[in-house]
Amino acid sequence: MPNDTLTITDNRTGKTYEVPIADDTIRAIDLRQIKVAADDFGLMTYDPGFLNTASCKSRITFIDGDKGILEYRGYPIAQLAEQSSFLEVCLLLRKGELPKAAELAQWTAEVTANAGVQASIEKLTDGFQSDAHPMGMFIASAAALATLYPESKKISDLEVRNNAFRQLVAKVPTIAALGYRHAKGLPFVQPDPELSYAGNFLNMMFATPGVKYKPNPALERAMDILFTLHADHEQNCSTSTMRVVGSAQTDPYTSLAAAAAALYGPLHGGANEAVLTMLAKIGTKDNIPEFITRVKAGEGKLMGFGHRVYKNYDPRAGIIKRAADEVFAVTGKNPALDIAIELERIALEDEYFVKRKLYPNVDFYSGIIYEAMGFPTAMFTVLFAIGRTIGWMSQWEELVLDADQKIARPRQIFLGPRRLDYVPMDQRA
Ligand code: ACO
């Protein structure tokens, strides 16, 4: 009869402890009983970057990094990308089940009806310099929405939460497009309620004001798939940020602005922008071997490669590569694609990348599609944020409803000096 416990012997004292194991996990707090002296703080775990620490129990997204599996609420990402739609995936992620037709129709109507933003958000965007990074504008606008929905602080009220989901999913494409149009010095295009979620986003980005925009169906579908692929990815850096900020009972708009700030970093959602910059620097296929040699020598990274959890092909990268063919059939091939394909081929045969299990991640090909569709590089992370908004919100609501959760507050190992006496300025060496 197996015993679901772990026996630990502290060789400092010779004492033995038995701690319960549940879900292949021990509770870190159970280690605190392990002490050398009665007034000891107790044993802690040291885990920078949370490589082996579960911060929550979740039922939303499952990843098996070794097998390259990604499932939203149990459904494989490839089936959702091929057969579902982004707005349906939003309901699935939040509620845990595929919606019935009437529920999806109502949600679609709510999102469509709330796509417009308040004049103050337009004014806020206008206040930025024209060379402001669109992620800076996106983060500021998301935080500003909190001031327009002050009741959103009542996080235990279901109706208030429903409205936050509706407003955020509806408005993130609009604030993203506002930032883009502002940077370009173009007038803002109002949302078109006759278009789909993805189609309307393309409209707000690329339409000529006053001229009815008809999205190309292949590009509209590719955009919808890209939003679906980015919709959630369990406890990554930005989602953990959403949960950490949300654990202080901060409203969801402000928490989402913080999550977007985490996404902005080049090691996270900023990687797709970095991939395009890298491909432009490489310039031609002939320069790839020299570039790889430099990466292996530690002079920079092969951006879009490697992942904290996927140690096999990122399943999203394969779907994006296929979507790319449909986009390029409309837009013509992006010349960066040839360099990317050759770079992938060389890297996947190279001992350095093979040994470290470094494969293309979601960002390796997404930027190439975005560029072909006409998005400037600086918008790539914003596109990621639009898709990820539903994931951040679903994870946030799971936290709000989880009785186990407390305000996030890690411990530290203090290594600095203590008990110094203040030295007046004229006596300092
Ligand atoms: N290029 C070259 N070497 C790499 C790369 C890369 N892209 N990624 C990891 N390595 C090397 C590391 O230098 C390290 O080598 P070492 O063992 O000789 O020291 C080894 O592989 C392990 O890498 P870690 O940095 O420990 O892996 P970690 O899990 O901490 O990092 C990360 C994952 C941040 C994604 C990393 O692979 C990376 O920086 N990739 C490039 C940026 C990128 O594409 N980010 C997007 C991630 S997907 C997303 O956020 C949506």
Oligomeric state of shown chains:
single chain
Going by CATH, the architecture would be Orthogonal Bundle
Largest sheet: 3 strands, antiparallel
> Any idea what the radius of gyration is?
24 Å
Give the spatial strand order of the biggest sheet.
3-4-5
Number of DSSP E strands? 5
Number of contiguous helices: 17
CATH fold description = Citrate Synthase, domain 1
What is the highest CATH level, the class?
Mainly Alpha
- What best-fitting shape do the alpha-carbon axes yield? globular
Distance between the termini: 68 Å
Low-confidence stretches: none
The arrangement of helices and strands along the chain is: EEEEEHHHHHHHHHHHHHHHHH
Structure class = mainly alpha
What is the strand content?
5-15%
Mean pLDDT: 95
Ligands bound to this protein structure:
acetyl coenzyme *A
Helix % is: 40-55%
Folded structure, characterized:
This protein has 429 residues and is mainly α. It has a single domain (64-410), classed as Citrate Synthase, domain 1 (Orthogonal Bundle), CATH 1.10.580. It has 17 helices and five strands. The strands form two sheets. Strands 3-4-5 form a three-stranded antiparallel sheet. Strands 1-2 form a two-stranded antiparallel ribbon. β4 and β5 form a beta hairpin. The termini are far apart. The model has no long low-confidence stretch (mean pLDDT 95). Bound molecules: acetyl coenzyme *A (ACO). Residues 267-269, 271, 295, 301-308, 356, 358, 361-363 line the site of acetyl coenzyme *A (ACO).
